[in-house]
Amino acid sequence: MEQDELMRRLAAAVTEGDDSAAASLARDALAAGIPPMTLVKQAIQSAMDVVGERFECGDAFLPELILAGDAARAALDQILPSISGEDRAAVNSGTVVIATMYGDNHDIGKNIVSAILSTYGFKVVDLGINVSPPAVVEAAVREKAHIIALSTLITTSLPYQRQVIDLLNESGRRDQHFVIIGGGPVTPEWARSISADGYGRDANDAATLCQQLMAGLEPPLPEPLILGALKH
Amino acid sequence: MAILTIQSENGPLTQVETDASAITVLDVVQRAGLGDWLDADCGGVGHCGQCRVRVVEHAPDPTPAEVALLTFTELRDGFRLACQIVANHDLTIELASRTALRHAKAELAGEMKITARPVVRKQIVSLPPPSLEDQRSDWRRLGQAFGLETHGLPPTSPSLALLRNLPTAVRADHFTVTGVFHAADLIAVEPGDTTRTQMVAAVDIGTTTLATYLLDLNTGRTIGVAAAANPQRGFGADVISRISAIAENPASLSEMQRLVVAAINDLLAEAAAGAEVARDSIYELVVAGNPCMLHLFTGVNPHHLAGTPYIPAFSEMIVLDASALGLQLNPAARVCLLPGISGYVGADIVADILATGLHRQPGSRLLIDVGTNGEMVLARDGRLITCATAAGPAFEGAHITCGMHAAAGAIEHVSLDGRFDVSIIGSPARDGQKLEPVGLCGSGLLDAIAAMVSAGVVDSSGRMQAVGLPDTLGSRFFAHNGATAFHLAGSSERPVFVSQHDVRQVQMAKGAIRSGISILLSEFGLSHTDLDEVLLAGAFGSYLSPASALIIGLLPPVPLERVRAVGNTAGDGARLAALSAAARAEAVEIAQTAGYIELSARKDFQSIFLKAIAFPNAE
Prior knowledge:
The complex is a heterodimer.
Chain A lengths: L2 H13 L3 H13 L4 H21 L5 H18 L5 H7 L2 E7 L7 H12 L2 E5 L6 H10 L4 E5 L6 H13 L7 E5 L5 H6 L4 E3 L2 H11 L11 E3 L5
Parallel strand pairs in A: 1-2, 1-3, 3-4, 4-5, 5-6
Helix pairs in contact in A: 1-2, 1-3, 1-4, 2-4, 3-4, 4-6, 6-10, 7-8
Chain B lengths: L1 E7 L2 E8 L6 H10 L17 E4 L8 H6 L2 H5 L2 E3 L9 E5 L4 H10 L2 E3 L5 E7 L11 H8 L14 H13 L3 E7 L2 E7 L7 E7 L3 E8 L4 E9 L9 H10 L2 H25 L6 E8 L1 H8 L4 H4 L11 E4 L12 E4 L9 H10 L7 E6 L3 E8 L2 E8 L19 E8 L1 E6 L14 E2 L1 H14 L15 H4 L2 E4 L2 E7 L6 E4 H24 L9 E5 H6 L2 H6 L11 E5 L1 H11 L1 H13 L1 E3 L7 H8 L7
Parallel strand pairs in B: 1-5, 2-6, 10-13, 13-15, 16-25, 18-27, 19-21, 25-26
Antiparallel strand pairs in B: 1-2, 3-4, 3-5, 7-8, 8-9, 10-11, 11-12, 14-15, 16-17, 17-18, 19-20, 22-23, 23-24
Helix pairs in contact in B: 11-17, 11-18, 14-19, 17-18
């Protein structure tokens, strides 16, 4: 098979969410001599961009997004071991510590964000649900996280997002980590009021947000990046 | 003791034993699980004339309501209104048969016993007048007359108000007094014989609506109904936003408590005035409502309901002094909060179960109360299991591009009859002018999505696509803020439409409810084909089209005729508990024995939810 055809079919397998086809096409593409970095950037991540755009305008929905994420993951699992040296660093987009805040045990949204971020080359450390602010900060320090991503679906847990930022400020670590927030009741106004570095409405926004933050910016930002604030 | 025999023209249906006076035939029929044989839109107050039955022999004299609502011939032939007949003597009642299905259900109902002895009761006593030979205190004299002293021990202490009133009350009518009892407690003493006026009230405190009922214990009849919007709405449309309002400003708690009590006072004043009784003659208020509403009603901070592990301050049956809450009833009146099951399945759902008799019927039934939180109950041969889902407010028109409340101009129904026909809330067309639609309310949204699924405008993944559609449909597609939209009605300048994002909102809401249904069914090892009935409780359940709910997969694919709207069963259950001590004891048993599944703790919820997001394939 032509290299171009392999690339095209791998991308299609990801957008269609076919994980077994994605894995076997990834193996075929490596065997055909396509550079691993080319596969990651130009087949898999660009396919995720396509799915993300479809999700953005509503043409695709959560199940399609998750299936695409699974397919991308299956392909990456075949490709990543063969990447070494400098490329290995290049494929690592950064480390994200992610958690659902204290008092909240809703994890579907956070799980989807984790899955999508990992397909974009982020190392995601998922702390789970009902996580206290000190536990978030402790994990961020331990993992040398570039980004702390905080989710909550219930209003009464919103103040814990602020507490994470307060703890970072108190310990003088606010310049070590970006803090981004999301979840049902979270708004851009809330992100501004607690001086977060970013707000995203959905998993696709989160991926874009993290990529933008890692493109040469330094925490804390004077104004948060706001993505997907208006959908209607 | 009276025996009520209920039959249809095809033969006997059931026999019910009642052992007190305070219950109507309508209540008995409803409690026997035969409620769908009789409509009673007015709630059993003798206004609508729908609950018509035939009394086979010795029909009682017609009441004024019956004279007004039934023809002379009907009255002569023994037709009466079930809400007007008191079941205090042996009676044979014939119900008009409606469909074969209803016969089938009647067989399921079986026999039952209703004990309508109320919790509140009055007892008259003539005390021996005191003398120099009999210098017992007033309290002792009264206690002994009522048999309050048990095993030689003095009775439990009276209230201060009762004590202060006592010397006057016993002497005002020559030592003839009426005692007012709440269960075993003597709560008030009234001079003379006041047994002719004994009222109780019931309220269903909904997050959006309050419904109050005034009941006469002497007849068991509902003599007044009044409803209004919950005035706490200014603090947020849903439970969580009201809890957040308290977190932001603790004074909101007492303000919300004051508001709801004031509204209930107003409604009961209105109901009492309509029935020409004094509020002073109301001795108890029985309360149903979701856990958060009961917390706000009592002024107990519901904060810990909001976050995991979702702990209410109380979910047991609680009896309080009405005056302490600010209620303007009889000064000695009590308030009884019905028990709930968990932090999100409350007294309203227990009342739903009580009123529909889910807990006592053989077979498998599912009851769903669709709201911002969709609560549901699955009953299988008397066993009950419940859960609550965070369905979100999509079905109330929130987060929907053209969404609105069910007000004038709202599209309330959409039918797919070759084209998309809409019906709009509001006055009928005048002067040949068509009423222009303004937006979509919940039932209209549900219908619109169902019609779009049926027409192929939306595929099973939920994606809107025009490929392969006839021009009449294809021409309705347009782009709105970068997303696909489908023109439903209205002019092109002011269109009412459904956007792709709206479809996604509905998918999440219905997916949440459907996931809850799937998990309950699997918990009892049942399939949806095992369901004898699906009952839709609450206001939205009464307005939504069951056919549409089936098309979009909000409900599992059961035959349409097994889906039934049951109305405000939370209010009905509260009324039953107000009338009958036995029903109240049943409520406690329901609350104690019903199981509860915390969906957010289920590891499989995510995968079940993601599957439930899809629409069933249209045939």
